[in-house]
Amino acid sequence: MDWDMLAYEAAPVGIVATEHRVIRACNRSFAEMLGYARDALVGQSFRLLYDTAAEFEQVRDIGLAPLRLDNAYSDERMMRRADGGQIWCRFRAQTLTPEDPLARLIMSFAVIHEGPPVSLSPRERQVVGGLGRGLTSKEIARELGLSPRTVEDVRARLLKRFAVRNAAELLAHLTIGG
C-alpha cells in the first residue's frame, strides 16, 4: 500500500468522497464510527445517516451558501449510526466543483461525543446543531422556520433533561458525555 492510501485508510477521522450527496468512497474510520461495513455505505445516499428527509434537506440548505462562497463549510452535527444511536460529529467539507458545490465534495467527520449514544429527537438535534455553531435562539428559529419561542422551549427541555444551566454546559455535557 502506498503512503497516500495508507494515510487515507488510517486517518483518525472519517473521510468521505461524494457526488450529489451519494457516497462514492469512504475510509475505514468513517464506516466504523457509523457502525457500517464500508460496502454498505458506498453507493448510498447520505440520507441513510439522517432520521428524516426534512433533516437531510435542511442540512444541505444550511451548508450550500458557504460552499458556494468559500468552497468550504464546517459545523457540528448529529449523525445516525447503523444501530439507530446517534453520534455528535465535527463536520468539514471542501467542494471540488465550486460551480456546483454538491457535485463533488470531500468531507471529514470527527466524533465529538464518544460516550454512550445520545438519543435526541430530530428537532433537538437541529437546535443542538445551531447551538454548536454559536447561533442564538432567534437565528436558529429563522434558519428552521420556527418561532423563537419554540426553539427556546426545546432548549429549556434539553437543559432540564441533562441537568445543566446553559447552552455552553449543554454542549460540554454532550461533548464529553458528562
Automatic annotation (TrEMBL):
Protein keywords: DNA-binding, Transcription, Transcription regulation
Q: Recall the GO molecular function terms of this protein's record.
A: DNA binding
Coiled coil, from the record? none
Q: Acyltransferase among the record's keywords?
A: no
Gene3D superfamilies, per the entry: PAS domain, Winged helix-like DNA-binding domain superfamily/Winged helix DNA-binding domain
- Can you tell which superkingdom this protein's organism belongs to? Bacteria
Which InterPro entries is this protein grouped with?
A: PAS, PAS-like_dom_sf, Sig_transdc_resp-reg_C-effctor, Tscrpt_reg_LuxR_C, WH-like_DNA-bd_sf
Q: Which residues cross the membrane?
A: none
Q: Which GO terms describe its biological process?
A: regulation of DNA-templated transcription
Protein name from the UniProt record: PAS domain S-box-containing protein
Give start and end of each HTH luxR-type domain.
113-178
Q: List, alphabetically, the SMART domains matched.
A: HTH_LUXR
Q: Name one Pfam family in it.
A: PAS_9
Does DNA repair count among this protein's keywords? no
Q: Which PANTHER family match?
A: DNA-BINDING TRANSCRIPTIONAL ACTIVATOR DEVR_DOSR (PTHR44688:SF16)
